[in-house]
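Dear Dr. H.,

I hope your travels went smoothly. While you were away I took the liberty of generating a structure for the chain from your last submission, since the lab meeting agenda had it listed for discussion. I wanted you to have the full record in hand beforehand rather than looking at slides cold. The sequence, exactly as received, is reproduced here:
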Amino acid sequence: MAATARGGRPVSKPCACGRLHMDITDSVVSPQTGEVEMSKKDMFLKLDSKRGGAVKGESEDPAHPGEMVVLDFTWGMTSVVSTGFSGKETKPAQLELRITKYVDTASTGLMSVMKTNDEIKKAVLTVRKAGGKQEDYFSIAIQGGRITSLEVSSEGDHPTLTERLSLTFNKIEVQYKAQSALGALKGASTFQDEVTPG
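The corresponding predicted structure, in token form, is as follows:
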């Protein structure tokens, strides 16, 4: 489970499964509709496939028009121990990027991408702080991947359908930007990696 804190900032915490879980902490569930409010507009996914092109979502946000609105995501790394001539070696392994979102206009496009095994040319997940001066401060960009699973479900009596998909990738770039008390973004720190087949 993800650790939580107030202030609209995701808190990350490794769990026993080796994954780094990220979640927006200022989200609330409406007692009238059962839908997640506030944080549902703070995370966005932009996805372009090699053959099908851009998969359009329903975001009307000026900074992320036509992107998919994301409710939740998980991603992380784990250590894999292998035995060779020089003894045991520990290598990091990338876990899939898993996205949870509402069913929207992008859903059938994502289904087509998976059905045709279309390559993900590039997908960018962006996280923005809630409240105050809203700035994109965390992002995960992947390239050369595939949609490996897609699942649509309903939560109890809630009328809104949710969709969960898992994305593999060959390249990943994670970027974080610190933010000052006045809301100005500071310099970015970046992590990059490539997945080696086999």
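Two observations you may find useful: The first helix runs from residue 107 to 115. The domain at 13-78+91-194 is CATH 2.30.110.20 (Pnp Oxidase; Chain A).

With kind regards,
E. W.
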